[in-house]
Write a structure and sequence with these properties.
Layout: H1 2-6, H2 10-68, E1 72-74, E2 79-81
Antiparallel strand pairs: 1-2
Length: about 90
């Protein structure tokens, strides 16, 4: 095996090593780009989840306030229907 390796000139080894390092750097850059995109998407989803949670909390407070005032919550319209005054 070493006889075969000795057939390759030293300058060729330098080019081979350089090519391997360049490929490794390119692969690292591609992996970093993928990880960055995944992180950005994760942050976008987290923000959407937080916004949805806040809207749900606000809506539940509105519903609770409607019931506390003696009204009836109409789900299709998302509105409180006040109870008729006697």
């Amino acid at each position: 095996m070493s006889a075969l390796l000795s057939l390759i000139p030293a300058r060729a080894w330098a080019y081979i090593v350089g090519a391997v390092l360049a490929l490794m750097a390119a692969a690292g850059y591609v992996e970093h780009s993928k990880n960055t995109a995944v992180e950005q998407e994760r942050q976008r989803i987290e923000k959407a989840n937080t916004d949805a949670r806040n809207k749900a909390d606000a809506a539940s407070q509105t519903v609770d306030g409607c019931y506390a005032a003696g009204g009836r919550w109409d789900r299709p319209t998302g509105m409180c229907i006040p109870s008729p005054r006697p």
